[in-house]
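Dear Dr. H.,

I hope your travels went smoothly. While you were away I took the liberty of generating a structure for the chain from your last submission, since the lab meeting agenda had it listed for discussion. I wanted you to have the full record in hand beforehand rather than looking at slides cold. The sequence, exactly as received, is reproduced here:
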Amino acid sequence: MKPVFKPVSFEAARGEIIGITGQNGAGKSTLLKIVGNVLSPTKGSCTWSRGSAKLDNDAIRLTLGYVAPYLELYDELTAAEHVQFVADLKGQSISLEDSIELLDRFGLDEKVARSDRHLRAYSSGMKQRVRCAMAFACSPEALLLDEATSTLDDVGTSIVLREARAAADRGAIVFVATNDERELAATHREVRIESL
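The corresponding predicted structure, in token form, is as follows:
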């Protein structure tokens, strides 16, 4: 297997917003997938711990919220059903009203969120708002935001950044893979990825 990027080493702590930067194709998304335990690194390791206890793979997946513009959605489900689906996967439950409130927080009109309109009828920006709400559902301990605002307008971008800061203020670790200066301005520090 061919390495994608040069070795990188960093630690992240609760309450931090860390920007992952690099040229297109440098491996930002790949690094986030490694951090999220979706991919295994060819060399080295990524370790998650809570206090002094190392987290196993299942625990890691339950603590993360993940959003990317390429994340698949189900055309036959409503926005609220997507949020509830993510909660179910994490062994939690979220009421219809709480799902609608979360979607509204991310700028999806309440009438739309409350309707039985399936996602096949949504614009790309509306779908991205749903993806973001799904990532933030159930107050995850860590958020992986992979170009989360790429299909959003300025209002949508401001909402995502506001919610990322609020999550960090609550103690979540937030990773933001981007080259967008607005997003990088919201981070506490940056990790630059360089391709091989």
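Two observations you may find useful: The chain has one domain: 17-192. The CA atoms of residues 137 and 147 lie 18 Å apart.

With kind regards,
E. W.
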